[in-house]
Amino acid sequence: MSEMRWDPIKQEWVVVATHRMERTFLPPPEYCPLCPTKECGHPTEIPRDDFDIVVFENRFPSFKLPPPQPSVEQSDLYMVEPSAGVCEVVVYTSQHQGNLSTLSKEKVENLIKVWRDRYQNLGGKEEIDYVLIFENRGEEVGVTLHHPHGQIYAFPYVPKVPAQELEAAKQHYEKTERCLFCDLLQIEENDGRRVVGSNNSFTAFVPFSAHYPFEVHIYSRNHNPSLIDLGESEIKDLASILQKTIKSYDNLFDHPFPYIMVIHQELCNNSKGFGHLHIEFYPPLRDQGKLKYLAGCEQGAGTFINDSLPEEKAGQLRQKFKEV
Protein backbone atom coordinates (compact mmCIF):
# COMPACT_ATOMS: atom_id res chain seq x y z
CA MET A 1 0.00 0.00 0.00
CA SER A 2 1.00 3.63 -0.48
CA GLU A 3 -0.65 6.84 0.69
CA MET A 4 0.14 10.42 1.69
CA ARG A 5 -0.45 11.50 5.30
CA TRP A 6 -0.42 15.17 6.31
CA ASP A 7 1.73 16.24 9.26
CA PRO A 8 -0.31 19.12 10.78
CA ILE A 9 2.61 20.31 12.92
CA LYS A 10 5.37 20.44 10.29
CA GLN A 11 2.88 21.28 7.54
CA GLU A 12 4.18 18.66 5.12
CA TRP A 13 3.18 15.42 3.45
CA VAL A 14 4.68 12.10 4.55
CA VAL A 15 4.42 9.16 2.17
CA VAL A 16 3.62 5.81 3.78
CA ALA A 17 4.67 3.02 1.38
CA THR A 18 4.82 -0.30 3.23
CA HIS A 19 5.67 -2.43 0.17
CA ARG A 20 9.07 -0.71 -0.09
CA MET A 21 10.22 -2.81 2.86
CA GLU A 22 10.54 -5.70 0.38
CA ARG A 23 12.82 -3.94 -2.16
CA THR A 24 16.02 -5.62 -3.29
CA PHE A 25 18.91 -5.15 -0.85
CA LEU A 26 22.57 -5.38 -1.94
CA PRO A 27 22.38 -8.47 -4.18
CA PRO A 28 25.58 -10.09 -5.50
CA PRO A 29 26.63 -8.84 -8.98
CA GLU A 30 25.35 -11.97 -10.74
CA TYR A 31 21.85 -11.23 -9.44
CA CYS A 32 21.80 -7.49 -10.11
CA PRO A 33 18.29 -6.54 -11.32
CA LEU A 34 19.65 -3.59 -13.34
CA CYS A 35 22.04 -5.60 -15.54
CA PRO A 36 20.97 -6.90 -18.96
CA THR A 37 19.24 -10.28 -19.00
CA LYS A 38 21.73 -12.73 -20.49
CA GLU A 39 20.81 -15.99 -22.22
CA CYS A 40 20.33 -18.71 -19.59
CA GLY A 41 21.14 -16.11 -16.95
CA HIS A 42 19.22 -14.66 -14.04
CA PRO A 43 16.19 -12.63 -15.27
CA THR A 44 16.46 -8.90 -14.55
CA GLU A 45 14.28 -5.80 -14.87
CA ILE A 46 15.68 -5.26 -18.37
CA PRO A 47 14.89 -8.14 -20.79
CA ARG A 48 17.65 -7.29 -23.26
CA ASP A 49 21.15 -8.68 -23.68
CA ASP A 50 22.51 -5.14 -23.99
CA PHE A 51 21.29 -1.52 -23.86
CA ASP A 52 22.40 2.09 -23.87
CA ILE A 53 20.22 3.92 -21.30
CA VAL A 54 16.99 2.47 -19.89
CA VAL A 55 14.11 4.08 -17.99
CA PHE A 56 11.40 1.97 -16.34
CA GLU A 57 8.86 2.35 -13.55
CA ASN A 58 10.15 1.48 -10.11
CA ARG A 59 8.96 -1.93 -8.92
CA PHE A 60 8.64 -0.51 -5.38
CA PRO A 61 7.24 2.99 -6.02
CA SER A 62 6.34 5.62 -3.43
CA PHE A 63 3.87 7.07 -5.95
CA LYS A 64 1.78 5.34 -8.60
CA LEU A 65 -0.78 6.07 -11.32
CA PRO A 66 -3.52 5.21 -10.70
CA PRO A 67 -2.85 5.25 -6.94
CA PRO A 68 -4.30 2.76 -4.45
CA GLN A 69 -6.96 3.99 -2.08
CA PRO A 70 -5.76 5.07 1.39
CA SER A 71 -5.94 2.48 4.17
CA VAL A 72 -7.46 4.87 6.73
CA GLU A 73 -10.16 7.53 6.87
CA GLN A 74 -9.08 11.14 7.24
CA SER A 75 -10.21 13.69 9.83
CA ASP A 76 -9.96 17.45 10.23
CA LEU A 77 -6.36 17.29 11.45
CA TYR A 78 -5.27 13.95 10.01
CA MET A 79 -5.63 14.37 6.27
CA VAL A 80 -4.81 11.47 3.97
CA GLU A 81 -4.62 11.43 0.16
CA PRO A 82 -3.88 8.81 -2.51
CA SER A 83 -0.21 8.85 -3.53
CA ALA A 84 -0.82 9.76 -7.18
CA GLY A 85 2.48 10.09 -9.01
CA VAL A 86 5.26 8.28 -10.83
CA CYS A 87 8.57 6.78 -9.69
CA GLU A 88 11.08 5.80 -12.36
CA VAL A 89 14.53 4.23 -12.41
CA VAL A 90 17.11 5.51 -14.90
CA VAL A 91 19.86 2.97 -15.64
CA TYR A 92 22.90 4.77 -17.05
CA THR A 93 24.68 1.84 -18.68
CA SER A 94 24.56 -1.91 -19.18
CA GLN A 95 27.93 -2.20 -17.40
CA HIS A 96 27.61 -3.17 -13.74
CA GLN A 97 30.71 -1.25 -12.67
CA GLY A 98 31.35 2.48 -13.02
CA ASN A 99 29.64 5.79 -12.31
CA LEU A 100 28.79 9.09 -13.95
CA SER A 101 32.43 10.14 -14.06
CA THR A 102 33.64 6.97 -15.81
CA LEU A 103 31.01 6.94 -18.57
CA SER A 104 31.90 8.39 -21.95
CA LYS A 105 31.15 12.09 -22.38
CA GLU A 106 28.68 11.21 -25.16
CA LYS A 107 26.87 8.83 -22.82
CA VAL A 108 26.46 11.54 -20.17
CA GLU A 109 25.21 13.98 -22.80
CA ASN A 110 22.61 11.41 -23.85
CA LEU A 111 21.68 10.87 -20.21
CA ILE A 112 21.01 14.61 -19.80
CA LYS A 113 18.73 14.42 -22.83
CA VAL A 114 16.91 11.48 -21.24
CA TRP A 115 16.48 13.52 -18.04
CA ARG A 116 15.10 16.38 -20.13
CA ASP A 117 12.69 14.09 -21.95
CA ARG A 118 11.36 12.54 -18.72
CA TYR A 119 11.01 15.96 -17.04
CA GLN A 120 8.94 17.17 -19.97
CA ASN A 121 6.91 13.97 -20.32
CA LEU A 122 6.11 13.49 -16.64
CA GLY A 123 5.60 17.19 -16.04
CA GLY A 124 2.95 17.22 -18.72
CA LYS A 125 0.72 14.83 -16.79
CA GLU A 126 -2.32 16.40 -15.18
CA GLU A 127 -1.62 14.76 -11.81
CA ILE A 128 2.00 16.01 -11.57
CA ASP A 129 3.16 19.30 -10.03
CA TYR A 130 6.90 18.70 -9.60
CA VAL A 131 9.54 16.40 -11.14
CA LEU A 132 12.60 15.57 -9.05
CA ILE A 133 15.59 13.93 -10.77
CA PHE A 134 18.23 12.59 -8.40
CA GLU A 135 20.97 10.03 -7.79
CA ASN A 136 21.97 8.35 -4.54
CA ARG A 137 25.54 7.05 -4.56
CA GLY A 138 27.16 4.90 -1.90
CA GLU A 139 25.95 2.69 0.92
CA GLU A 140 26.57 5.64 3.27
CA VAL A 141 23.42 7.31 1.86
CA GLY A 142 21.39 4.09 1.75
CA VAL A 143 22.07 2.77 -1.76
CA THR A 144 20.95 -0.85 -2.11
CA LEU A 145 21.95 -1.42 -5.75
CA HIS A 146 25.47 -0.58 -6.96
CA HIS A 147 24.73 -0.64 -10.69
CA PRO A 148 25.07 2.97 -12.03
CA HIS A 149 21.57 4.45 -11.91
CA GLY A 150 19.44 7.32 -10.72
CA GLN A 151 15.77 7.93 -10.03
CA ILE A 152 12.95 10.29 -10.94
CA TYR A 153 10.02 11.10 -8.66
CA ALA A 154 7.03 12.90 -10.17
CA PHE A 155 5.10 14.43 -7.26
CA PRO A 156 1.40 15.31 -7.08
CA TYR A 157 2.41 18.40 -5.07
CA VAL A 158 5.44 20.67 -4.75
CA PRO A 159 7.69 19.23 -2.00
CA LYS A 160 8.82 21.48 0.84
CA VAL A 161 12.46 22.06 -0.25
CA PRO A 162 11.80 23.20 -3.84
CA ALA A 163 8.69 25.07 -2.66
CA GLN A 164 10.75 27.11 -0.16
CA GLU A 165 13.46 27.66 -2.76
CA LEU A 166 11.05 28.91 -5.41
CA GLU A 167 9.20 31.10 -2.92
CA ALA A 168 12.51 32.75 -1.93
CA ALA A 169 13.26 33.33 -5.63
CA LYS A 170 9.80 34.81 -6.13
CA GLN A 171 10.21 37.21 -3.20
CA HIS A 172 13.65 38.27 -4.44
CA TYR A 173 12.29 38.95 -7.91
CA GLU A 174 9.37 40.99 -6.57
CA LYS A 175 11.83 43.10 -4.57
CA THR A 176 14.61 43.50 -7.17
CA GLU A 177 13.22 42.28 -10.52
CA ARG A 178 16.26 40.00 -10.72
CA CYS A 179 16.77 36.24 -10.47
CA LEU A 180 17.95 35.16 -7.02
CA PHE A 181 20.15 32.41 -8.45
CA CYS A 182 21.74 34.69 -11.05
CA ASP A 183 22.59 37.17 -8.30
CA LEU A 184 24.07 34.45 -6.05
CA LEU A 185 26.14 33.09 -8.92
CA GLN A 186 27.49 36.55 -9.72
CA ILE A 187 28.56 36.99 -6.09
CA GLU A 188 30.32 33.60 -6.09
CA GLU A 189 32.10 34.20 -9.39
CA ASN A 190 33.22 37.70 -8.34
CA ASP A 191 34.46 36.43 -4.97
CA GLY A 192 36.09 33.26 -6.31
CA ARG A 193 37.07 31.71 -2.98
CA ARG A 194 34.29 29.12 -3.05
CA VAL A 195 34.37 28.40 -6.79
CA VAL A 196 35.46 24.83 -7.57
CA GLY A 197 35.45 25.05 -11.38
CA SER A 198 33.70 26.58 -14.34
CA ASN A 199 33.19 26.43 -18.10
CA ASN A 200 31.29 28.52 -20.64
CA SER A 201 27.84 27.44 -19.42
CA PHE A 202 28.12 26.26 -15.78
CA THR A 203 29.93 27.09 -12.54
CA ALA A 204 30.48 24.71 -9.62
CA PHE A 205 30.96 26.16 -6.15
CA VAL A 206 30.65 25.39 -2.45
CA PRO A 207 27.78 27.57 -1.15
CA PHE A 208 28.49 30.40 1.30
CA SER A 209 26.08 28.72 3.76
CA ALA A 210 26.88 25.10 2.88
CA HIS A 211 25.05 22.58 5.07
CA TYR A 212 27.61 19.85 4.38
CA PRO A 213 31.43 20.27 4.39
CA PHE A 214 31.89 19.18 0.76
CA GLU A 215 28.53 20.37 -0.58
CA VAL A 216 28.76 21.57 -4.19
CA HIS A 217 26.20 23.38 -6.33
CA ILE A 218 26.44 23.62 -10.13
CA TYR A 219 24.59 26.65 -11.53
CA SER A 220 23.68 27.40 -15.13
CA ARG A 221 25.46 30.64 -16.04
CA ASN A 222 22.56 31.58 -18.31
CA HIS A 223 19.11 31.99 -16.83
CA ASN A 224 17.78 28.58 -17.86
CA PRO A 225 14.72 27.67 -15.77
CA SER A 226 14.93 23.94 -16.61
CA LEU A 227 16.68 21.26 -18.66
CA ILE A 228 14.27 22.02 -21.50
CA ASP A 229 15.93 25.41 -22.02
CA LEU A 230 19.46 24.05 -22.59
CA GLY A 231 21.05 24.31 -26.02
CA GLU A 232 23.32 21.64 -27.46
CA SER A 233 26.54 23.35 -26.35
CA GLU A 234 25.14 23.79 -22.83
CA ILE A 235 24.32 20.08 -22.62
CA LYS A 236 27.92 19.30 -23.53
CA ASP A 237 29.18 21.74 -20.91
CA LEU A 238 26.86 20.28 -18.26
CA ALA A 239 28.10 16.77 -19.01
CA SER A 240 31.69 17.98 -18.73
CA ILE A 241 31.35 19.82 -15.41
CA LEU A 242 29.29 16.98 -13.92
CA GLN A 243 32.03 14.48 -14.70
CA LYS A 244 34.84 16.75 -13.52
CA THR A 245 33.03 17.48 -10.25
CA ILE A 246 32.49 13.79 -9.49
CA LYS A 247 36.08 12.94 -10.44
CA SER A 248 37.24 15.69 -8.09
CA TYR A 249 35.21 14.10 -5.31
CA ASP A 250 36.64 10.65 -6.05
CA ASN A 251 40.22 11.94 -6.23
CA LEU A 252 39.92 13.80 -2.93
CA PHE A 253 40.49 10.65 -0.84
CA ASP A 254 41.30 8.24 -3.70
CA HIS A 255 38.03 6.47 -3.05
CA PRO A 256 34.51 6.54 -4.55
CA PHE A 257 32.81 9.52 -2.90
CA PRO A 258 29.26 8.99 -1.59
CA TYR A 259 26.72 11.68 -2.33
CA ILE A 260 23.13 12.60 -3.05
CA MET A 261 22.80 14.55 -6.31
CA VAL A 262 19.56 16.46 -6.98
CA ILE A 263 18.53 18.51 -10.01
CA HIS A 264 16.59 21.66 -9.07
CA GLN A 265 14.54 23.39 -11.74
CA GLU A 266 11.30 25.19 -12.55
CA LEU A 267 7.87 23.88 -11.68
CA CYS A 268 6.24 21.82 -14.41
CA ASN A 269 4.45 23.92 -17.05
CA ASN A 270 5.31 27.16 -15.24
CA SER A 271 6.19 30.20 -17.35
CA LYS A 272 6.94 32.65 -14.52
CA GLY A 273 10.62 31.76 -14.57
CA PHE A 274 11.43 31.98 -10.84
CA GLY A 275 13.29 28.67 -11.09
CA HIS A 276 16.89 28.46 -12.27
CA LEU A 277 18.47 25.18 -13.31
CA HIS A 278 21.09 23.99 -10.87
CA ILE A 279 22.38 20.74 -9.41
CA GLU A 280 23.13 20.21 -5.73
CA PHE A 281 25.45 17.58 -4.24
CA TYR A 282 25.02 16.56 -0.60
CA PRO A 283 28.01 14.37 0.39
CA PRO A 284 27.87 12.78 3.86
CA LEU A 285 31.68 12.80 4.35
CA ARG A 286 33.16 15.60 6.47
CA ASP A 287 36.68 14.18 6.15
CA GLN A 288 38.38 10.97 5.11
CA GLY A 289 36.62 8.11 6.89
CA LYS A 290 34.40 10.50 8.87
CA LEU A 291 30.68 10.80 8.23
CA LYS A 292 28.54 13.89 8.79
CA TYR A 293 25.56 12.64 10.80
CA LEU A 294 22.30 14.55 11.00
CA ALA A 295 22.00 14.47 14.78
CA GLY A 296 20.02 16.33 17.45
CA CYS A 297 20.41 19.92 16.25
CA GLU A 298 19.81 19.05 12.59
CA GLN A 299 16.93 16.64 13.17
CA GLY A 300 15.36 18.23 16.23
CA ALA A 301 15.78 21.92 15.42
CA GLY A 302 16.29 21.89 11.65
CA THR A 303 19.56 23.81 12.06
CA PHE A 304 22.63 22.42 10.31
CA ILE A 305 26.04 22.72 11.92
CA ASN A 306 28.95 22.68 9.46
CA ASP A 307 32.25 22.01 11.25
CA SER A 308 34.40 23.29 8.37
CA LEU A 309 34.89 26.51 6.42
CA PRO A 310 33.27 26.42 2.95
CA GLU A 311 36.23 28.43 1.59
CA GLU A 312 38.71 25.78 2.76
CA LYS A 313 36.72 22.83 1.43
CA ALA A 314 36.24 24.63 -1.88
CA GLY A 315 40.01 25.06 -2.09
CA GLN A 316 40.57 21.33 -1.63
CA LEU A 317 38.03 20.47 -4.33
CA ARG A 318 39.28 23.24 -6.66
CA GLN A 319 42.78 21.73 -6.64
CA LYS A 320 41.40 18.30 -7.55
CA PHE A 321 39.18 19.89 -10.23
CA LYS A 322 42.29 21.47 -11.84
CA GLU A 323 44.06 18.11 -11.80
CA VAL A 324 41.23 16.24 -13.61
Overview of this protein structure:
It contains 6 helices and 14 strands. The chain is of the alpha+beta class. The radius of gyration is 20 Å and the shape is globular. The N and C termini lie far apart (46 Å).
The CATH architecture of the largest domain: 2-Layer Sandwich
End-to-end gap: 46 Å
What is the string of helix and strand elements? Answer: EEEEEHEEHHEEEHEEEEHH
Supply the number of structural domains.
2
What would you report as the Rg, rounded to the nearest angstrom?
A: 20 Å
Strand content: 15-25%
What is the helix fraction of residues, given as a range? 25-40%
Helical run tally: 6
How would a crystallographer describe the biggest sheet? 9 strands, antiparallel
For the largest sheet, list the strands in their spatial order.
3-5-7-6-11-12-10-9-8
Question: Given the helix and strand composition, which structural class is it?
Answer: alpha+beta
Search tags:
324 residues, 9-stranded antiparallel beta sheet, HIT family, subunit A, 6 helices, single chain, globular
Topology readout:
Blueprint: E1 2-7, E2 12-17, E3 54-57, E4 80-82, E5 86-91, H1 105-123, E6 130-137, E7 149-155, H2 160-176, H3 180-191, E8 195-198, E9 202-205, E10 216-220, H4 232-252, E11 259-264, E12 278-282, E13 285-287, E14 290-291, H5 296-301, H6 310-323
Antiparallel strand pairs: 1-2, 1-4, 3-5, 5-7, 6-7, 6-11, 8-9, 9-10, 10-12, 11-12, 13-14
Helix pairs in contact: 1-4, 4-6
